[in-house]
Design brief:
Number of domains of chain A: 2
Distance between the termini of chain B: 28 Å
Oligomer: heterodimer
Structural class of chain A: alpha/beta
Helix content of chain B: over 70%
Shape of chain A: elongated
Radius of gyration of chain A: 24 Å
Strand content of chain B: under 5%
Number of strands of chain B: 0
Number of domains of chain B: 1
CATH architecture of the largest domain in chain A: 3-Layer(aba) Sandwich
Chain lengths: 310, 258
Amino acid sequence: MIEVSHLSKKYGEHQAISDLNFTIQKGEVVGFLGPNGAGKSTTMKIITGFMAPSGGEAKICGFDVFENPIEVKKRIGYLPETPPLYADMLVEDYLKYVAQLKLVPKDKIKSYVASALKKTQLTEVKNRLIQNLSKGFKQRVGIAQALVSRPEVLILDEPTVGLDPKQVSEIRDLIRDLRGDHTIILSTHILPEVQVTCDKVIIIHEGKIVAQETIDQIEKMNQDFVLLTVKTKRSSSIELQLKNIEGVSHVEVVSSQHYRVKLIEQDNVIEKIASEVIKSGSGLMELSPSRANLEDVFLKLTYGQNKVEV
Amino acid sequence: MNAALVIFKKELAGFFKSPLFYFLSFMMTILLSILFSISLDKFAQTSSNAMLQFGMQPQLLNIHYSVFLPHLSIINLIFIFLIPALTMKLISEEKKLRTFDLLLTSPVSSASIVMGKYFAALSVILALIIVSFIYPFVSRRVFEFSWLPTLVAALGIFLVAAVYTSMNLFASSLTENSLVAFVLSIVFNLSVWFVGAANESFDEPLLKAVLEHISLNNHLAGLIEGTIRTSGLIFFFSLIFLFCFITERVIESSRWRA
């Protein structure tokens, strides 16, 4: 559906993205993650045919975005960082205009607009001027604008920015509903969003792909670094005993009743630690493993000093 | 082509919904009303005692020359400033509000964008010219005259306005700031008249001939007199095409320029 190979873009001297390679299958929802300035928006702009790459190629449904932009643009809906809204138009008229621009057949425009309004819950404000809407509503009009032509590929650049928590979860539900019919790429730096909505994550850092996995794989990625919090009722000095257990790589003493243990292996080690603490007679209060989540992986991949092998 | 029509309709509706357009047309009609009635009154006086004025140029006794041509030249003068005000936002505002992204990611060619916007602006200007034609039309009730020369002269003004529109659309495509587009447009509109003036200050025959040929004034003069020359029409159409074409190039360039 979307094939990107050796894609790179330079802004003058600045290398925004370099040598990106990925493919996205039909119906997948893919999250683009990365810190600010990592090249997410640049990549999206290139995929939409809005901007030409400096090198490499991107294909959507088999059409090269640079060689055959019109064919590509028929098949995509794009929500840029700033929603492209005409302040002096009514919401409904605006969506009609977009549908016409996207070459939706005349007899279908009405129903497409109505369903886009419904999906983004804008039906109540359809007869209001866009300039009088609040930021959240404007963002939703932006999403409606991307949806209205029912494109095969949806590209959403930070779709939930500026929305309140209820709307955010509505938009996430919406994206989940759209899964299957549409191929969706969304960029964000809100991690739970990716966890909830996406099948696959592409993490970009400094213009390069640092990870490209399914959500499950990413979460598994550093399970060998489980962090175990141990709390005891009475003061104890079990640091040494804990260190001697096979599989424990590091013990941090927070206080005499509170330890943080870093494990290499999982199940057996935790059991051994538990029995060790009980044996010491200090009274086990808490034993909680904190699994590495997407956030840790993300932080390690982007801000960490390349400690983790990917 | 379909997309050009969509953009055309949207822009045309935009013009007629904007208060700026009504304000500008209001100012224009006020100005024209005052000036037209003054010159018509003057003409009526001169022609009523024409017998007394032997040494007078015969042209002054012709309503076409003494009333309608000044009327059209005032329209031209107004257009130099009014067309920039109408067209300044056509592209620059889209760039500023990022709605340009929508156009560039829609299956619309740059040529359709330019054509849609250009013809929308041109239709508005045609409407203004038609409105300003009410004045000669009304004077028909008082004076007998031949329509054709006036119509041809109006065609001349329309063509000049079409040239302004294409240049001003180009100016609008160059910047994100509509004020800059406005000022630049006025500079363009004024400068076409200076090309003709530069003609006077050179002696070299070849240069003189070239300047004479590219002078808008020269080509307009024929139309004003009531004669349509193909060389003049070709000149106007090629100017319009040239500026629309480079506007299209500017829009297209935003696809590959960083």
